[in-house]
Amino acid sequence: MAVPILVFSVNKTRGSLLLRIIESGGFKAKLFDNSHELEYAVRRRRPSIIVFDTKHYQSREFHIIRGFHTRFPDAEIILFAEPAEIPGFIAAGIKKDCCFSDPINPDDVSLKIREIYFIKNKAFLRIKTYFLFVCSLFAGTRDNPYIVFMKKIIMAVAIALAVSLGIAGGFVFYSMSDLPKVQLLETYIPFESTFLYTADGAELAEFYLERRKFVSFYKIPKHVKNAFIAVEDAHFYTHHGIDFFRTVAAFINNIRAGDTVQGGSTITQQLAKMLFLTPEKTLSRKVKEAAISMQIEGRYKKDEILAFYLNQAYFGARAYGIEAAAQTYFGKKTDDLNIAEAAMLAALPKAPSVYSPFKDPKKALARRNLALKSMLERGFIDSDTYAASSKEPVPAYVYRKKYTAPYFVEYIRNIMEHKFGDRLYTAGFRIYTTLDLKLQKKAERAVVNGSAALARAGMPAVEVSLIAIDIHTGAIRAMVGGTNYQKSQFNRATQAMRQTGSTFKPIVYLTAFKNGYTPDSTVEDKEVTYSSYDGGQEWTPHNYSRRFYGRVTLRTALSKSLNAATVSLANTVGMDKVIATARSIGVTSNIYPHLPAAIGVSEMTLLELTYAYTTFANGKRFDPMVYEKITDRYNIKIEDNAPKGIQAIDPANVAKMRDVLNAVVTEGTSIAAKSLNRPVYGKTGTTDGYKDAWFIGFDDELTVGVWVGRDNNRPIGDEMSGSHAALPIWINFMKDDE
């Protein structure tokens, strides 16, 4: 293309997506992730278009954009920025219609670049034909002067005609010299959405650059096919790629109107243009389009061509192909569309933004009814059907799927994006996750109910997160990262680093068991002052009850969550060994290497701590597992993700851990969990000032972690310990279904 395009983004995936969007429209572009290199390229290349993505661009040197605008006024800048920053760029001179906010919308990019391209690069075909009148060749003839003159005229016309035909033939030959091979249709792989599924096969989410899902031709109802034929190409089944009569009629009508009011392209020509040709409007492209169309018609059956077209056509609202369009506009599959809906979709490809029912319902309704009238005139429907269908309303809103597990979807999206890069949005993967839909719904209800209960008790705006893990495989079965994903996408299950409080204590007791202690071994619970490691203020741990219990068993010390006894035990076994134990069961966060860490001053995520408790449950350490298998668009398996547990605790110590963690429930701080009427194990946790409340526990199937707190680290409320704020939510989730 004649318009050079430069793209800037410091985020590799976003930059690659922008590049692929631009190149899919037939344009060439170069990507930069360094502002200095971009500035050098701008000075050297003098681009006509600069696509600048400010997402994740932490530099304050946004004046570079304003500098480009000032020094290179002929260059158009397309900007992606946070909504709050856009007014500042507009004030600096960037055009409002060139400023976009997240998410990156391929429609915005493609349409804006095409618009700029045709303004800046009006490439009109200019053929200069020269006619030589070789009258001198006839000089000196003895014929009648009138006859001589007539011969000269005839000869001149013949020569001019020959030259013109030669030029036209040469032009056609030149235009067709680089035609693509239509056989590429058989290997053509367009962008296709990647789909996430739950563990039992239910569709969970869709990742896409172009929303597309292929549908076989035989699954498309006849009335849907008829709608497109009636609107786009009435003689589809009789012509051979080009409808000459329609082309001539369109040419005449356009001449009369002084504008392009009617198109003459067949469905085959439109397919050729979509797949093989650039958007430039030149005579050369039209010649290629006609030639490719005839090749396609000679190689493929009509039904195959129509299937290619219906799966490739763009319908607006980021929907590519008939299946995605049916989902986007009506929330249905293609084979569920009625006649009015089929006519609405058939009306869109000519100008999706113009006839969008979401932008101009009246114009969309008129266009839809015109499509119905075309179906009536061609005998595809009767008058009664036409009358009934024309009264149906057009869609009022885009059908966007609301994900059941948005925090989990975003978590796995980041993992898959790291794994596949921008192919995640274009390759059509089928990712079968570990999520159990039934458990996920229980988790969401438990969080909503728990948050509401806290609000009723005078503690509004408290956040809750919950995660459930299969103790046998390490698979994440449910994840809730907050009370309202629409208000905050911050995942408190995987991203929030919070002090663990007493939920860290079992790691101290496991360390003791690994060094010969048993649940019946004793430890002294008394007031002891410890010197500071750095020579600062001395420290004396106190219990929550503000009393000391003397010599107690390890079982009692943990069940009553005694701080003094736990610190004494950690001091005896050594904090270096406690940290080593934490590492052995999968804790990777930084652990404060001194005695206060024994009672939970270090910070972890709920995900990390819940996986540690999963190791307590059966002795195996697992890495987070979010998917079971991945297939390609043809459902051919490309990866099988089997559980990979590593034995981190020997069975004898697993039994000891179950003993003491069960005592927490039967006789300690979590006695309310006895209401479940089955063996469960776990530990509460509370941090200073009631800023964090935890409960992490398990049964014979699941490990479940619950955290309650505020994002600003302010107190939850008076007496809001783990047993009062987090444990009720955990119990609610763990209850057997009625």
Automatic annotation (TrEMBL):
NCBIfam families hit by this protein: PBP_1a_fam
Family according to the record: In the N-terminal section; belongs to the glycosyltransferase 51 family.
SUPFAM superfamilies assigned: beta-lactamase/transpeptidase-like (SSF56601), Lysozyme-like (SSF53955)
Protein name per Swiss-Prot or TrEMBL: Penicillin-binding protein 1A
Catalytic activity line of the entry: [GlcNAc-(1->4)-Mur2Ac(oyl-L-Ala-gamma-D-Glu-L-Lys-D-Ala-D-Ala)](n)-di-trans,octa-cis-undecaprenyl diphosphate + beta-D-GlcNAc-(1->4)-Mur2Ac(oyl-L-Ala-gamma-D-Glu-L-Lys-D-Ala-D-Ala)-di-trans,octa-cis-undecaprenyl diphosphate = [GlcNAc-(1->4)-Mur2Ac(oyl-L-Ala-gamma-D-Glu-L-Lys-D-Ala-D-Ala)](n+1)-di-trans,octa-cis-undecaprenyl diphosphate + di-trans,octa-cis-undecaprenyl diphosphate + H(+); Preferential cleavage: (Ac)2-L-Lys-D-Ala-|-D-Ala. Also transpeptidation of peptidyl-alanyl moieties that are N-acyl substituents of D-alanine
This protein's record includes keyword Protease: yes
Top-level division of the source organism's lineage: Bacteria
Pathway the protein takes part in: Cell wall biogenesis; peptidoglycan biosynthesis
Compartments it resides in: Cell membrane
Keyword annotations: Carboxypeptidase, Cell membrane, Cell shape, Cell wall biogenesis/degradation, Glycosyltransferase, Hydrolase, Membrane, Multifunctional enzyme, Peptidoglycan synthesis, Protease, Transferase, Transmembrane, Transmembrane helix
Domain Glycosyl transferase family: 201-375
InterPro entries from the UniProt entry: Beta-lactam/transpept-like, Glyco_trans_51, Glycosyltr_51/Transpeptidase, Lysozyme-like_dom_sf, PBP_transglycosylase, PCN-bd_Tpept
Ranges annotated as spanning the membrane: 123-141, 153-174
Keyword Protease applies: yes
Principal cellular location given in the protein's record: membrane
Penicillin-binding protein transpeptidase domain: residues covered: 466-701
